[in-house]
Design goal:
Blueprint (H helix, E strand, L loop, with lengths): L1 H17 L1 E14 L2 E6 L4 E4 L10 E6 L5 E6 L13 E2 L7 E3 H9 L11 H16 L4 E7 L1 H7 L5 E11 L2 E6 L9 E2 H6 L9 E2 L3 H5 L7 E7 L5 H10 L2 E2 L4 H11 L2
Parallel strand pairs: 7-9, 12-13
Antiparallel strand pairs: 1-2, 1-4, 2-3, 4-5, 6-14, 8-9, 8-13, 9-10, 10-11
Helix pairs in contact: 3-8
């Protein structure tokens, strides 16, 4: 009997140690396969469940998942960005990226804030990196998003439904190239295809779209979608809102910046 008790205590401890927790707003619930449903959260994380609660709404939750991204626990949380007046940052579309040289690009990459937490979310790191370069050096960047489909996430039990990083326009000879600055995953600026290859195991090219709704219908034939937007967007929900409302961010929101620093940097 004692051995059985010790076995179950050991199993419980192992399960607890493998569990991972995060705070985020629930964005969407969709069917992944059969009776399995996929929960998508604002920080890019996902969770699988076979019994989605019909009462779940766009609220911030504390979420626990196991190593296969199966949902273990979901409870309401008060950890969220500061509220701001919409008029402060939803205006008209305008975002012309600064054209920089290769030398300038490498200097920018080398001065990216490296004091991020290993457990931080990509949207917060990218937001701070873009904000600091704009604030300190008046250099305007863009954001590049890779959006993973439910079929891809389900196939690999992938833990993210999107990833984002700053994107810069670099003059190389007579050409203008787009370079991704993702300090956590790349030791130098890389092309968009090099960047997505680090997350897309099939190495398939991501289908480019200018409409979030095209990704949102989630055709099972694609592994991923690619979107490019202004540096002011914080996560894909901004792009969804822009498409629905026809209004766009043209300023950084102070509440989002404060939250991004708090969550992502030491």
């Amino acid at each position: 009997m004692q051995k059985i008790i010790l076995f179950f205590l050991s199993l419980l401890l192992t399960t607890t140690l493998m569990a991972e927790s995060f705070h985020a707003q629930l964005i969407a619930t969709e069917r992944a396969q059969g009776n399995t449903f996929l929960l998508k959260f604002s920080n890019g994380r996902v969770a699988f469940t076979t019994s989605p609660d019909a009462n779940l709404g766009p609220t911030t939750y504390e979420v626990s998942v196991d190593e296969d991204q199966n949902l273990l626990q979901l409870q309401v949380s008060d950890d969220r960005p500061e509220a701001e007046e919409e008029k402060n940052y939803f205006l008209s579309p305008e975002n012309t990226p600064t054209l920089i040289t290769e030398e300038e690009a490498r200097k920018i990459f080398n001065r990216l804030n490296s004091k991020y937490k290993r457990s931080s979310e990509c949207s917060n790191r990218a937001h701070v990196w873009a904000w600091e370069e704009f604030k300190n050096n008046k250099i305007t960047s863009e954001k590049v998003y890779v959006l993973f489909t439910a079929s891809y996430i389900n196939r690999y039990r992938f833990k993210w439904w999107f990833h984002v990083a700053p994107l810069y326009s670099v003059k190389k000879g007579d050409q203008i190239e787009k370079w991704v600055f993702d300090f956590m995953f790349n030791p130098q600026p890389v092309s968009i295809k090099q960047w997505t290859d680090g997350f897309v195991f099939s190495k398939r090219s991501c289908r480019y779209t200018e409409k979030f709704s095209e990704y949102d219908v989630n055709p099972q034939t694609e592994d991923c979608y690619l979107m490019i937007d202004s540096m002011f967007t914080w996560n894909p929900m901004d792009m969804k809102h822009q498409e629905l409302s026809g209004r766009y961010k043209t300023q950084f929101a102070r509440g989002e910046i404060n939250f991004a620093y708090k969550q992502a940097f030491q």
